[in-house]
Amino acid sequence: MIKCHLSRILGERKQKIAEVARDTDINRNTLHRLYNETATRVELDVIDQLCRYLDIQVGELFEVVEHADQQLL
Predict the structure, then answer these.
(1) Of 17, 39, 52, 68, which has the fewest Cβ atoms less than 10 A away?
(2) Locate the HTH cro/C1-type domain: which residues (predicted)?
């Protein structure tokens, strides 16, 4: 499973989704889905734009997390 750290990052920076949406022109609904970890797919250009805006690497935004009940193939 992929975990998105957008909520933690914005919380640490005291930034709001509305501010990020306004500054980046990323759709607010897309940001909400990332923030709430309900997104099932995200365009690469959105990830690129978000990482550039936040000045972070992709690995700081997303993390692969294994469930205890999942086995590696």
Answers:
(1) 68
(2) 5-65
Q: Which domains does the chain have, with CATH numbers?
A: 2-64 (1.10.260.40)
Burial 24-49 (b: 16+ CB within 10 A, else e): eebeeebbebbbeeebeebeeebbeb
Distance CA 28, CA 34 (A): 10
- Report whether 17 contacts 31 (CB < 8 A): yes
How confident is the prediction for the chain on average, in pLDDT? Answer: 93
Return contacts of 24-31, CB within 8 angstroms, 24+ apart: 24/49, 24/50, 24/53, 26/50, 31/6
